[in-house]
Design goal:
The chain is an alpha/beta fold. It has twelve helices and ten strands. The chain has an eight-stranded parallel barrel with strand order 1-2-3-4-5-8-9-10, surrounded by nine helices. The chain has a two-stranded antiparallel ribbon with strand order 6-7. Bound molecules: zinc ion. The site of zinc ion has 6 residues, from loops.
Amino acid sequence: MLVSAKEMLNKARDGKYAVGQFNINNLEWTKAILLTAQEQNSPVILGVSEGAGKYMCGYKTVVGMVNGMLEELKITVPVALHLDHGSYDGAKACIEAGFSSVMFDGSHYPIEENIEKTKELVAECEKLGLSIEAEVGSIGGEEDGVIGAGECADPNECKAIADLGVTMLAAGIGNIHGKYPENWAGLSFETLAAVKEKVGDMPLVLHGGTGIPEDMIKKAISLGVAKINVNTECQLAFQEATRKYIEEGKDKQGKGFDPRKLLAPGFEAIKETVKEKMELFGSIGKA
Ligand SMILES: [Zn+2]
């Protein structure tokens, strides 16, 4: 059964580790992440962007697939199904479809409007026992066509949003989505510490987990980050393994064209990436 992310994140915050959010794109992705979480006895959050939701034929299809897998694969570790960077309408649709967690990204609105909309969704999630993530200060890079510059959040605005009763808060601290550029300035731990001081116990979320150096990840966790989003890294691992399979001509040997064989190296590569991240985040054995 899907669970809210609240308990797993509070435990992570108290235990000084982070739970990984791994974004899903299809059946192979979802199965790879769920099996790895179970094997490593780790809590996990499955992230679904609005674009990926559409690609997978809508939120109801996603909920049906994930719930089916939890049962058929006998997954017993805590799993939350979470909308990533949701719009107001997207969040409502996911709540309706059976997600156990949503993110409302109102970071591109003026702060008053972000507060107003977040507040409404907090009330709705509270009624149903779902967790909700809010965002202050846009995260750089591109997410479903929305490009942010990687700004640093205003700690006072973070407090205003945290006080609405959200479960977790994503604050921009110079992190960006996708691959990091060579001249990236690194995470702003000054901002992170200032935000933490204002929001107290609120678990913080670090987006754009691909390519942040390990020591920065560990420092961020020590400063209150309890959820780290990983998306691009699984895509790159899948791409590389699939490319290798084709380049070695394995698709032309025997029944190598069988999609279950063709997609297997990519599937294994995702599993390996997820395991590495869980090790780095410290969530192994914490289910
Ligand atoms: Zn993000």
